[in-house]
Structures are given as C-alpha cells and as structure tokens.
Design a protein that fits this description.
ten-stranded mixed beta sheet, 632 residues, 18 helices, alpha/beta
Length: 632
C-alpha cells in the first residue's frame, strides 16, 4: 500500500478549490444540473428549450447589461422553478449572496426546505457547492462557497438586516409588504454587477408588479407564427381568438381538450400539435418608452431547408431594466394551455356568472383593469342626458323589475330597476326614500315598494315581484318582517373583502330565528360588484373582441340612467371610490358622512338579480312567485 504525502494532499485540494470553472451557457448548465423536485416533471432536469419564455428569462438574467428583470405571468407556469435554477447557476458560475423575499417567512422557508435545497442535494455537482452537509443548512439560510442564500418574509427582515446582496429576488410581489419590498430593493446598490428579479402574477392594472413592469426601459412580448399563413402574432384572449364548440353550454372537459387558438390573420385553427413548431420559431419583440418597438416578418420557408424565424426589424431600446410578460395561453407546461384557460373561464362563469379577478390574474396572467377608480357627477349627468328612457317608464325590452331597499335609523331608501333578457341591460327606473323608524313603519314601506307598478313602452304595466332588503341595520326587525311577508322580500347583506381575497361573488347562508324556521340570507361580496358597476357606469365603448373581463355577465351588458335623473341620485351613485392598499383594495366613501344609500341599493339589486338570473330574468316576474319556484 502506497503512502500519500501531506503536501500532495494539500496540492490536490488547492487544485480543486482554485481550478478554473467550466463556464457553460446558462440554459445548458440548467439542463445538465437542475433536477425538478415537484410537479409532473419531478426527477427530470429542466429543459428550457421546451418553454420559450423561461429560456428567454434565463438568457436575460445572464446578460451582464441587464440589472433588473420584472417577470409577469400566470400561476403554475414555471417562473419559480426557473429562478431556483438561476440561483444554483450563480452558485456554480457567478457566486454571490442572494436575498430571496416572499410575502411570509414561513412560505419562504418552506420553498427552501421542500423545493430549492432538495434540488441542490439531488445532484452531486450542486450539492458539492454547499459548505457542510444538509444538516448544516437552515430553513432561512443556505451557505455555499462564495456566498449565502437568505430566505426571508416581507413582514420582517430580522436576521438579514444590513446584509449586502449581489442578487435580490422578490416573489409574489403584489402580496409582499411594501416596506419590506422597499428595504430589500436597496440591498444591491453597492454591487456594480447587481441583479434584481421581481416576479409574480399581476393584480390591479397600474399598481404593484404591473407598475414595475410599465416602468421598465425595455418591455418584451412573445410572438409566435401561425402554421398556416406563417405570420406572427401575440396570443391574446378574445372572442375571435380563443374558440371552442358549444359556447357556454359546452362540457368543461371538452373545452379543456379541444379549445383552439384562431389566427388573427387567416382565422385558421392552431392546435396543440402545432405548439412545438411555434415554440421553435417564436420571437421576442422589444418595446421601448412611447410604444416604439420591433416588428417581425413571416417565417422564412425555403424548399429543402428547415423553417427559419422571420426577420426582426428595429433595434432593442437602450436600458438595463427589462420587463417580460407572458400569458396563460403561452404556458408550455400544459398539453393544451388554450384549453386550460378557456375551461377555467367557462367553469367560473357557470359557477359565479363571471370569470373573476382570480381567473384573470392567475390563470390568464394579465392585470385587472378598471377603467375608472371614481365616478364624478358631471360624467353621470352627461350619461343621463343621452338616455333613451325617462324615469318611471320601463324600456320595451323589459322582462322583469327588481327592487332593493337600504334601511337606516329613521328612514328607508329604495330603488327599482328594469331588466332586459339575460340582464343584457339594467335600466334605473325609480328611487326614493320613506320615513320609517319602527318595525311596523319599515314593514309598511317594504309593502309600498312591493306594490309599485310601472308602464312598459309598447307593453302592459309591470309590477315589482320582490324587494331585496339590506340587513346591515335593524336585522332582528327585518327577520321578523320577512317571516310575515314571505317570498316578496329577500334578505341580503354585504361582505367587504379586499380586492381578490375572495373567489365567491355571493353565497347563501341561513340565520336562526327564535320560534321560527331558519331564514335564507344572501351574502354579497361587495368589491367585485362595485368594480363592475363602476365599469358599466363609466364605459363609453364596448369592445366586441373581448371576452367578459370587467363585468359579472357578458360584455354586452349596459347600465342605463333615466334622462331625468336628479342630482340627489347621481351624487349618491358616485359617493365612493376604490382605495388601493398593499393587501388589496376596498371601496370607501370619498369623505366621511357622504350619503351613499342609493349606491348601496344598486349594488344589492345587481347582486340579487345576478343570483336569480338563471331562473328568473328571462321571463316576467309580475306573476306570483310561488308558481315560478323562486327561492327566497
């Protein structure tokens, strides 16, 4: 047995430690070394050639001219897995300390313990970069030769205060605490070659990560070629582009399998079997400030040669801050991403009457845009002056009336609207207030509104079949009145969830009544209802190419004011504004004490009518409700 001299051992160690690194392109290094630990690709390496958007982001990160990358995309599209792989790549190729922030510390630690560190340990090439073994790593800290990875929550930077970081990553940006975000963004200023990554699904347009994206020097858009006409286009959700057979009556699973993208140029079908070809020839186009950007010609096709990407015209604008946006329609981690997005859209519409903000931001991956955040009385006056119907006269297409009431300390406010088939139009018809303080007076007021009848243009008079009453005040008295009045009265109550925090538009619960049967109570998620009414009252032009994205029914819905609407009504309809906050926005009074009772009436009227729409709005409701099987 031979002996090894100590100096030979030391020399071997020095040679290993100080040996020149084999520098590989970032996408090639990831394909060789990063082993996915979750999802359908668990146990396999991450091949970026299969996902055009992930490969582009990786190459952008490796570009020394880029210091900040803002990445907006849908949930479950591989963004997080890619950044894990980029952290590992820097550990091997460009060492430096990382600060990784998520909204909460426990989520940051969980990502490290269940996803990042297991992937590092799964490959000897990456495991060998660690200082010590697995037991020497912490849930909040991974130590490697040349740096550390700190995993922190935005609510607290304890343990990492003052730590300089060459690399910064803020994930789920819109859900992170604003102060935490601001502090972390300062960490890399001392590094000439700093890198900052901001990722997340979008929230409200113009805020959070969308505002970060809009402020980028260069914004990149993914375009793909049509396999038929060879022209390029961005994949955009719309009626004319995302298509399936059967409309809203189609089985959701069929839509998931068979929905297709229709070329905006030649209108021919693009099927899942075309995706690999499209990915191999996709192009990223740069756009600078002011909308100046690149264009691309059609695919170059020559006989006997493989197809080549089209020629790109225009220069990449200067700037070190890049923004990358892609949608759920681009998600190459799914067999038929167009079908997935369409199926989720249809599922939400069937369940809630609307796709909702969660579908729009997490499934489709685009920000929610509300065309106005507050209404002004001048706008509503102008809208009313152009109206085609007068107060107290229902339009010719009316199929039912609906009434709501807001109970206050000494009076009630009421509002009546006329509904066209399938709620395609809501026309405010009449409103008023009645002095009512006692239980008997409130009951008399409800009966007065329930007995109202109105003429219909070119049709017979129509009555109010049901009054929805807000139970925010005097709930006990209203429960007793409901037991006496029965189905002519409906109980409703509002719930103020911050924007995007609840997936339900409304839900039905019961309230226990002493010496009586439980009563049904419709709980209304106020925020999306008010968002929609805001859009309907301020919208000037209908976009026929868009699926329902801002309204709670189809995009053809309109909300009409009577031409003789008075300022008392109009002022209350614009009494609130949408107030944004880091945890999600809420509707609030423009100033304390401002009356908003008819606005509340409109909100509950819309919600109650939407809840009844499947059974009621396509026929007149001046018949007895008991004959129509209407629930209360």
């Amino acid at each position: 047995m031979g002996f090894v001299l100590a100096e030979d051992v030391a020399g071997a160690v020095r040679a290993r430690v100080f040996a020149a690194r084999v520098m590989l392109p970032v996408d090639e290094w990831i394909a060789r070394n990063w082993i996915v630990q979750t999802g359908p690709r668990k146990g396999s390496t991450l091949d970026l050639n299969l996902t055009a958007y992930l490969k582009f982001i990786a190459l952008a990160f490796a570009n020394p001219a880029v210091t900040t990358i803002v990445i907006i995309g849908p949930a479950q599209s591989g963004k997080t897995e890619l950044i894990f792989a980029l952290i590992a790549w820097t550990m091997s190729q460009r060492p430096g300390t990382w600060m990784v922030m998520l909204p909460k510390a426990d989520k940051a630690h969980g990502n490290n313990e269940t996803r990042f560190l297991p992937s590092i340990l799964a490959n000897p090439n990456t495991a060998g970069l660690l200082i010590g073994g697995q037991r020497d790593q912490k849930q909040s800290l991974v130590r490697f030769r040349g740096g550390e990875v700190h995993w922190i929550g935005s609510e607290s930077l304890s343990g990492a205060e003052g730590t300089p970081a060459r690399y910064v990553w803020i994930d789920e940006y819109d859900r992170c605490d604003e102060t935490g975000r601001e502090k972390l963004e300062q960490r890399g200023k001392s590094f000439a070659d700093k890198k900052q990554i901001i990722t997340g699904t979008p929230g409200m347009g113009g805020e959070g990560i969308d505002a970060q994206f809009q402020s980028c020097d260069v914004k990149w858009t993914l375009v793909v070629p049509c396999p038929h006409c060879l022209k390029y286009h961005e994949r955009i959700w719309g009626k004319s582009t995302v298509v399936w057979e059967g409309g809203q009556d189609a089985p959701i699973d069929d839509v998931r399998r068979n929905a297709w993208y229709q070329c905006p140029h030649c209108t021919k079908k693009q099927r899942p079997e075309h995706r690999a070809w499209q990915t191999s020839l996709c192009v990223w186009l740069a756009q600078g400030p002011g909308g100046r950007g690149q264009t691309v010609g059609p695919v170059i096709r020559e006989e006997g040669r493989p197809d080549q990407p089209g020629l790109v015209s225009g220069k990449v604008p200067e700037g070190r801050r890049w923004g990358v946006a892609f949608s759920g329609l681009d998600n190459e981690l799914q067999v038929n991403p167009v079908g997935e997005v369409a199926a989720e859209f249809l599922r939400k519409v069937k369940a809630h009457g609307r796709p909702g903000e969660v579908w729009e931001t997490e499934t489709l991956g685009r920000p929610v845009v509300i065309k106005a955040r507050s209404m002004e009385v001048e706008h509503l006056r102008a809208r009313a002056s152009a109206a085609t119907h007068a107060r107290g006269v229902a339009p010719a297409d009316t199929v039912t009336l609906y009434a709501t009431m807001d109970v206050q300390t000494d009076r009630v406010y009421w509002l009546v609207a006329a509904l066209a088939p399938a709620m395609s139009r809501i026309s405010l018809l009449d409103w008023g207030e009645i002095k009512a303080e006692t239980e008997a007076e409130i009951e008399a007021a409800i009966k007065t509104v329930a007995k109202k009848r109105y003429p219909v243009v070119n049709g017979p008079d129509i009555g109010v079949p049901q009054v929805a009453v807000d139970t925010g005040h005097k709930a006990t008295e209203l429960y007793r009145i409901k037991m006496r009045i029965g189905s002519r009265m409906r109980l409703v109550k509002g719930e103020s969830f911050r924007d995007g925090k609840s997936k339900d538009l409304y839900r039905v619960t019961t309230v226990a009544i002493e010496n009586g049967s439980p009563l049904k109570l419709l709980l209304v998620n106020l925020t999306p209802i008010k968002n929609t009414l805001m859009t309907l009252l301020t919208r000037k032009v209908k976009n026929e190419d868009e699926h329902s994205d801002e309204t709670l029914a189809d995009e053809g819905m309109t909300l009409d004011l009577p031409r003789d609407a008075d300022d008392a009504l109009l002022n209350q309809l614009c009494s609130e504004r949408f107030q944004t906050a880091s945890g999600g926005g809420l509707w609030q009074l423009k100033r304390l004490g401002l009356p908003n009772h008819w606005w509340d009436c409109l909100v509950y009227l819309f919600a109650a009518a939407m809840h009844n729409s499947a059974r009621e709005v396509t026929r007149r409701l001046d018949q007895p409700l008991a004959k129509q099987g209407t629930s209360d």
